[in-house]
Design brief:
The chain is an alpha/beta fold and 267 residues long. The chain contains 11 helices and 10 strands. Bound molecules: adenosine-5'-diphosphate and magnesium ion (MG).
Length: 267
């Protein structure tokens, strides 16, 4: 396997084990080209969050380790690097569940995201960028974050990650639990962040939203990539539509495929 120069992030044959025994990723490979939005889809428990933790160096607090495979970022082997190094190198993760510091102000939340930055002018620049992206945060910058709505807290969590001025932003289900109008806003913000030059790895269960803005997509199933392709192809794929967009009770993409095959035969 040769690394492509245009690949910003490249994960090869990754295996991750929790608590020394629970293997969760089984030889997973994916790449994010420089400047792209790449979608990572998959049902609950597939291992999406684990993959993001492996990339951002956050496995250790969860008693997880990379037992095999490599993570390359910007031409450098960063496998098993610690979270602070990952942030310094340009990787920022917005964790699942829009975690913000509820007891402190919006402004203090944002400044906390800039802990790796050296100069005040850099911090100022990022701060202005974030407030430009999220006018609501500008309005509430002196309010305590815990009082913001769910959607605003998601914006704050994204804004905090941007304060590190990342080359790549890892987003873990940013639309989860948000009203449709808020989902649309999150979508627009991701597009704008990308337009400003930040690459994005977007983990979502909202396949329609993610694939509508991504160039390429991966579908994960039990720790592996089950399917990948240009986002437009995945969006048009009948199995994916049935699994993610239909009112299906089938629990895996493989189940959906079997079911559809049976349906075709019995029709
Ligand atoms: N800290 C942990 N210790 C042990 N098992 C874990 C831990 N975190 C996640 N898992 C397990 O790993 C699998 C994948 O989880 P996760 O990466 O959170 O999937 P997803 O984000 O796709 O829902 C699940 O079976 C989950 O129970
Ligand atoms: Mg998850």
């Amino acid at each position: 396997m040769t690394a492509d120069d245009t690949d910003l992030l490249s994960v090869r044959n990754l295996e991750v084990v929790y608590d020394d025994v629970v293997a969760v990723l089984h030889g997973l490979s994916l790449t994010v080209p420089s400047g792209a939005i790449v979608a990572l889809l998959g049902a609950n428990g597939a291992g999406k969050t684990t993959l993001l933790r492996a990339v951002s160096g956050l496995l250790r607090p969860h008693r997880g380790v990379i037992t095999k495979g490599v993570v390359h970022f910007d031409g450098v082997d960063v496998t098993r690097a610690d979270p602070a190094e990952m942030v310094r190198r340009g990787i920022a993760q917005v964790m699942e569940g829009r975690r913000v510091f509820a007891e402190v102000t919006v402004e203090e939340n944002l400044r906390a995201g800039a802990y790796t930055r050296r100069s005040r002018s850099e911090v100022r620049e990022s701060y202005d960028r974030v407030l430009g992206l999220f006018p609501a945060l500008a309005r509430y910058r002196r309010s305590v974050a815990g009082y913001l709505s769910g959607g605003e807290q998601q914006m704050l969590a994204i804004g905090r990650a941007l304060m590190a001025d990342p080359t790549i932003l890892l987003l873990d289900e940013p639309s989860l639990g948000l009203a449709p109008q808020m989902v649309a806003q999150v979508r627009e913000v991701i597009v704008e962040i990308n337009r400003q030059g930040t690459s994005v790895l977007l983990v979502e269960q909202n396949a329609a939203m993610a694939l509508s803005i991504a160039t390429f997509g991966y579908v994960m199933e039990t720790g592996k990539i089950a399917l990948d392709g240009p986002a437009a192809d995945l969006l048009a794929d009948a199995d994916i539509r049935e699994f993610y967009l239909g009112a299906t009770t089938r629990r895996s993409l493989a189940d959906v495929k079997t079911y559809r095959r049976k349906k075709r035969w019995s029709a």
